[in-house]
């Protein structure tokens, strides 16, 4: 249904009226034949008909389109009274902004927010009504904390209510303690698993370090044995060198002798024999 034409100020163009309800267009749609309708009106019409209500041309709901822009602008500029005019609202505004105003209008009739109350009251008087509404919620004047929602609730037993409240608090506390306990146990289990995993990793690293150290010690022992053998071979070579030097010095001394030829030959023969004996000794030198 459209807007009541009696609410509008001034002249309203005939083209801005719904062809079905004859009120000013509300949420308009336009048929291919350019006749305009309220959305609710044309949808209801097409349930039982398949033609335009003005010129009887065949139309389908899929052919309906939004109103032309210039017509939409003309429609939005129309001035009309608030629907709460009968309650005292004197606001006149454009059709484009009327919905926003009526949602916030102080003269709008709204229901009481208290459960069980059926009173409809103006928005501007709602606070005053809530203060005296018999369905309003309020705490017991005796201080037990019970919320009174109706006249019957004023006869409640404060001791019983306090006991009930105490049991609720106790149950809530137990639930919270259990939740905290479960959460703490979960965290401890997680930390325990992490520690076990970390210990396993460290143990593996220690074993690897021990293995590396064992290999290093074995290599060191091998190097030390090779060094001792090399040192022995050097000492042997040094000993042989000294012997050769002594032989050479003996040969030089014998050459300087001015004894008889027979004596020289005998003397020369002995060092040479010693030299040949040294040459025939097998030697093994290990190179590292």
What would you say about this model in short?
The chain has 288 residues and is mainly alpha-helical.
How would you characterize this protein structure?
The protein has a 3-stranded antiparallel beta sheet with strand order 2-1-3. Strands 4-5 form a two-stranded antiparallel sheet. Helix content is 54%, strand content 8%. It has 288 residues and is mostly helical. The chain is elongated, with a radius of gyration of 59 Å.
Q: Summarize the amount of helix as a percent range.
A: 40-55%
Q: What's the SSE pattern? A: EEHEHEEHEEHEEHH
Main sheet overview: 3 strands, antiparallel
- What is the CA-based Rg, rounded? 59 Å
Q: What is the average per-residue confidence, as pLDDT, rounded to a whole number? A: 83
Number of strands: 9
The span between the termini is 112 Å
Count of helical stretches = 6
Strand coverage percent: 5-15%
Coarse shape: elongated
Structural class assignment: mainly alpha
Strands of the largest sheet, in order across it?
Answer: 2-1-3
Low-confidence stretches: 281-288
Core attributes:
288 residues, mainly alpha, three-stranded antiparallel β-sheet, two-stranded antiparallel sheet, 54% helix, elongated, disordered C terminus
Topology diagram in text:
Elements: E1 28-30, E2 36-38, H1 39-48, E3 65-66, H2 69-77, E4 79-81, E5 92-94, H3 95-104, E6 109-111, E7 120-122, H4 126-132, E8 138-139, E9 147-148, H5 158-256, H6 261-280
Antiparallel strand pairs: 1-2, 1-3, 4-5, 6-7, 8-9
Helix pairs in contact: 5-6
């Amino acid at each position: 249904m459209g807007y009541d034409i009696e609410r509008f100020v001034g002249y309203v163009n005939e083209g801005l009226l719904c062809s079905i309800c004859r009120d000013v267009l509300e949420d308009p749609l336009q048929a291919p034949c350019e006749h305009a309708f309220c959305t609710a009106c044309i949808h209801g019409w097409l349930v039982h008909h398949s033609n335009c209500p003005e010129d009887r041309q065949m139309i389908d709901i899929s052919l309906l389109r939004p109103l032309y822009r210039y017509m939409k602008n003309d429609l939005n500029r129309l001035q009309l009274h608030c629907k709460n005019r009968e309650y005292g609202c004197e606001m006149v505004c454009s059709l484009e902004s009327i919905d926003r105003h009526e949602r916030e209008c102080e003269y709008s009739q709204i229901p009481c927010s208290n459960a069980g109350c059926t009173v409809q009251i103006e928005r501007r008087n709602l606070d005053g009504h809530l203060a005296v509404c018999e369905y309003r919620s309020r705490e017991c004047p005796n201080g037990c904390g019970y919320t009174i929602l109706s006249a019957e609730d004023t006869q409640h037993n404060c001791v019983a209510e306090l006991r009930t409240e105490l049991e609720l608090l106790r149950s809530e506390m137990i639930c919270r303690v259990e939740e905290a306990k479960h959460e703490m146990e979960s965290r401890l289990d997680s930390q325990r698993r992490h520690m076990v995993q970390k210990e396993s990793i460290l143990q593996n690293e220690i074993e690897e370090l021990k293995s590396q150290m064992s290999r290093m010690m074995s290599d060191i022992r091998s190097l030390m044995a090779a060094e001792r053998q090399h040192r022995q071979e050097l000492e042997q070579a040094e000993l042989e060198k000294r012997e050769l030097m002594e032989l050479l010095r003996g040969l030089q001394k014998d050459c300087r002798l001015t004894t008889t030829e027979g004596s020289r030959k005998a003397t020369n023969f002995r060092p040479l024999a010693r030299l040949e004996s040294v040459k025939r000794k097998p030697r093994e030198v290990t190179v590292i």
